[in-house]
C-alpha cells in the first residue's frame, strides 16, 4: 500500500488498520519540539553506565511524532518500530489504537437483546439475596440495536449480481471472489450502478461477511459523495458487517457518529445499531457520545428512539455515571407508545441506576406506572429499580404483582422489592 505521506497527501485508513508510513518518510520524523524523537530510554531515565553488564534498552519511544506536519504514532518493539499516520488526530496512544483498530478489544459484552434479562438488583450490606437470572442471547436481532432492513428487490442475490456484472461489464469468472467484490465496490458512489452495487454488497455482508470486508475501504470512502439512496444502503452495509466484525468498523466511527444526526431515519437507526455493536466490544467508544444519543430519546420515529435508548443501555454497562446524567429523560421513555422503547429504557435504567439512586427515586410516578406494563421485562425491571432505589411508591401494586403476576420472574422480583422497601 502506498505511503500516506509521500503520495498525494494523507489518505483514509483502508480496512481496519491505519496506513503505515514508509521508512524514507519516517526518517524525517520529529517530536513536538522539532527534535529527533527519543527511543529506548527517555532522556531523563538513562541507566547508569555499567561496563560489566549489557543493558538492553526497553521497547519504548516517544509519541506522537510528526512528519511534514502530519501527526503519526509509533508502535515500538525490541527490534525497532513501525510508524502510522494518525487520521483522527488522537490525543493518546490508547485512543489511536482504539480508533484505528490496533487495540485488543474487551471481551464482547452482551447487548440488550430480545431474550436478554434485566440485571440483578444491587446487593447492599445485609440485604436479602435477590433473584438471579442468567443472561441469554437466542441469536435474534438486537432489540436495542436493530438493523433497519430496507426493501430488497424481488430479484435474488444471484440475479442482482448478474445484472451488475453484465450491465457494468465487470469481468469475473467466479462469484464473490476478492477481485469481483473490489470491482463491484468501485461502482459505489460514482456510477449509475451505485445503489444496486451496494445493495448487492449488503447481501454479501449478510451471507459471507468475510468476503464483504474486502469492499469496506472503498465503500466507506464513497459515503460522503454518494446520493441519498446509496447512503442508506452503505449504512445498512456497515450495520450488517458490525454483526460479525465490529472492530472492522472502527475506522469509520466519524461517519457513524455523523450518521446519528442525519435527517434520514434509516441512516440514523442503522448508525445507532452499528455503534451499539462496536460499544459492546470497545466500551470507551461510547463514553463521549452519551449527550448526543440522549437527544434522540424524543425523536419522532420509534425506531430511532428504541435504538438510541438501547445504545445508552449498552454504554451504561461500562460507564454508568455518564448515562445516569440522563436518567430522568430515559425514565420518560417508560411511557412511550412503542413497547420496545419502554423495554430498553427499563434495562438502561437498571444498568445506570446504581450510579445515581437519587435520580431514580425522583421517578417514582413513572416507576409505579411501569409496574402495570404489558411486558414482563418492564415490570420486572421496575421492581428491581424500586427495590434498589427505594422511591416513595404505593405498595399495593407491588403486592398484586407479588401475589398474582402470571410471570414467575416478575412475582419473585416484586417479592424482593417489597422486602427492601418495607424493612
Task: Describe the structure in your own words.
It is built from 20 helices and 3 strands. With 423 residues, the chain is mostly helical. Strands 1-2-3 form a 3-stranded antiparallel sheet, with no helix packed on it. Strand 1 and strand 2 form a beta hairpin. It is flat, with a radius of gyration of 26 Å.
What is the number of helical segments per DSSP (H or I, 4+ residues)? Answer: 20
Order of SSEs, N→C?
Answer: HEEEHHHHHHHHHHHHHHHHHHH
What is the 3D shape? flat
| Sequence of strands across the biggest β-sheet | 1-2-3
Q: Whole-Å distance between the termini? A: 68 Å
Condensed summary:
With 423 residues, the chain is mainly α. It has helices at residues 23-26, 93-99, 157-167, 178-185, 194-207, 209-212, 216-222, 228-242, 253-259, 265-281, 290-294, 302-316, 320-324, 327-332, 339-353, 357-361, 364-370, 376-389, 395-404, 408-421; strands at 65-67, 70-77, 80-85.
List the helices and strands and how they pair.
Layout: H1 23-26, E1 65-67, E2 70-77, E3 80-85, H2 93-99, H3 157-167, H4 178-185, H5 194-207, H6 209-212, H7 216-222, H8 228-242, H9 253-259, H10 265-281, H11 290-294, H12 302-316, H13 320-324, H14 327-332, H15 339-353, H16 357-361, H17 364-370, H18 376-389, H19 395-404, H20 408-421
Antiparallel strand pairs: 1-2, 2-3
